[in-house]
Structure formats: C-alpha cells, structure tokens
Amino acid sequence: MNTPYIKFYTDKTQRIHRDELQAYDLENASYLVYDEPYYHLQADILIGRLDHKRSFGFLRQEEDDVYIEGDDLKDAMHDDIVLVKDGSQPKVVQIIERALKVVIATVKSGKKACIWSRTMYVGSAGCDHVVPNGLPKVVHLDVLSIEASKIQTVN
C-alpha cells in the first residue's frame, strides 16, 4: 500500500513538505490537510503502533498512550500501525501497515478435513491453508493480506 501516512509514522513528524510526498498516492489520504506547502494530519487523528490486549488496546504514543475499547479496534491486530480518531471514545479509522507477516502452523488430519493449530506467529492471527497428506506437518505461511479476520497466505 502506497500510503503517505507511513511516512508520518517513520519520520515521527506532524507535517511533511509536499515535495517529500510526491511518490505517494494522496487521492485517498482523507485524514491529511494541506496547508501550503505542508501536509499534516487532521487535528483529531493520531498515528502509532497498536498494543492489542484481549478486549481492548492502546495506541502507543511518545507522551501518553491512548486507550481504545475492543469494539473500536476494527480488525486491527497487535503491533499494526494504525490511524486513530481521538476524542471521548477513540477508535481505529484505518490500518496503515500490518505487523503480521508470517504464520507458522502445525497441520493435522481431522475427521472431516485438515485442521491446524498455531505453532508460532510473527504477529497474532490465523489462516486457512490446504496441505497434502503426510500429516502432521509444520508449515511456514507468508501472509498476503488480512481482512475481517481472514488471512490470505502464499505457499
């Protein structure tokens, strides 16, 4: 995803000169404000890495972390870089970059189908994957995308 928001996160800045954002797609960057010659995030938008707990999360910030209720996390996962609309009830409005890149799973033969259990995540979710006979088998799955708790993998 070619989003300008990642530059705000990596540069740890609140404003960026327009010349530095020429390589990014600004058409769908609805949380940016242009104030000649700089772009900056809307006043109520925060960017940061998510610390996801079971039923809530925190947007990690340099000053004070921001508490986010579970229903307001969308499908964001631990360590994702997200945009959060700040206010009386902060909520994730966009996932900028997923932290989950790899899933290591043990695949076993079930009564009706192959089943798997996570052996290790480099992140924190699950996926579907068809594995040939010769089970159980440990597989390494590269994550392509994550949408609404469904993970697409390669391999």
Would you state the CATH class of the largest domain?
Mainly Beta
Give the topology string: H per helix, E per strand: HEEEEEEEEEEEE
- Seen as an oligomer or otherwise, the chain set is single chain
- Topology-level CATH name of the largest domain: OB fold (Dihydrolipoamide Acetyltransferase, E2P)
Low-confidence stretches: 120-132
Strand line-up across the major sheet: 6-5-4-7-8
Strand content: over 45%
Layout of strands and helices, then pairs:
Layout: H1 5-11, E1 15-17, E2 32-35, E3 38-41, E4 45-52, E5 56-60, E6 66-69, E7 81-85, E8 91-97, E9 102-109, E10 114-122, E11 137-147, E12 150-154
Antiparallel strand pairs: 1-3, 2-3, 4-5, 4-7, 5-6, 7-8, 9-10, 9-11, 11-12
What attributes does this structure have?
elongated; 4-stranded antiparallel beta sheet; OB fold (Dihydrolipoamide Acetyltransferase, E2P); single chain; 2 domains; 155 residues
Description:
This protein has a five-stranded antiparallel beta sheet with strand order 6-5-4-7-8. It has one helix spanning 5-11; strands at residues 15-17, 32-35, 38-41, 45-52, 56-60, 66-69, 81-85, 91-97, 102-109, 114-122, 137-147, 150-154. The relative contact order is 0.14. Residues 120-132 have low confidence and may be disordered. It is mainly beta and 155 residues long. Strand 4 and strand 5 form a beta hairpin. The radius of gyration is 19 Å and the shape is elongated. The protein folds into two domains: 5-97, OB fold (Dihydrolipoamide Acetyltransferase, E2P) (Beta Barrel); 102-154, no CATH class.
